[in-house]
Design brief:
Blueprint lengths: L11 E5 L2 H14 L8 E4 L6 H9 L9 E7 L4 H14 L11 E3 L6 E7 L8 H5 L9 H11 L5 H9 L9 H6 L5 H4 L3 H11 L1
Parallel strand pairs: 1-2, 1-3, 3-5
Antiparallel strand pairs: 4-5
Helix pairs in contact: 2-3
Length: about 210
Amino acid sequence: MLKKLESVECSSILIVEGKDEVSFLDAYIYRHKGLEKSKVQIIDAGGKYGFRQDLADLKDLPGFDSVRRIAIIRDADLSAEQAFQSVSNALQSESLPVPDRPGHFATDETGMITVGIFVTPDNKRSGCLESLLVDVIKSRNLRSCVDEFFKCADKPSRPKQYMLALLSLMEEYCNSIGLAAQKGYFDFTVFDNSEMASFVTTFLQI
């Protein structure tokens, strides 16, 4: 969270909802893609309602003047459209460029700063990062077991609950997608084909 952030250290910053997303993208960007940590700084917004204040706080931190690229990733939850509008409003309030639609980027009139927004799982559906990652976990053969579990319990399988059930079947104890990513339980070669991965890759190449 920004309370612990003393300065902006990179010209590219990636702002995400929470610590799980930080850990997941840490594993994907730095370990899987091999990018140096000096190239992009991943920042925990402290929840979906933290983006507006975080953007204001970021602009006051030492080093922000050198920022040239910002990407924001947040969950759609009930509506991808509403999630996109919420982030767009936060950007507008800080006079930062706003993309015309999720998954895209916008550059300010000076050409100095570019901003992109991605709404998980795919800029269209309701849901969250876990909605995407159920297809990326290495032990996908265990999904039938989890399907039977929820069927037996006669309960709806919400994405976060479904993912926790899957992670409970891993070789070592794991209770979050961030920890799962650090332990190597996701197949990043499959994730590479997702819209989110394409967005991150584009951001890193700008």
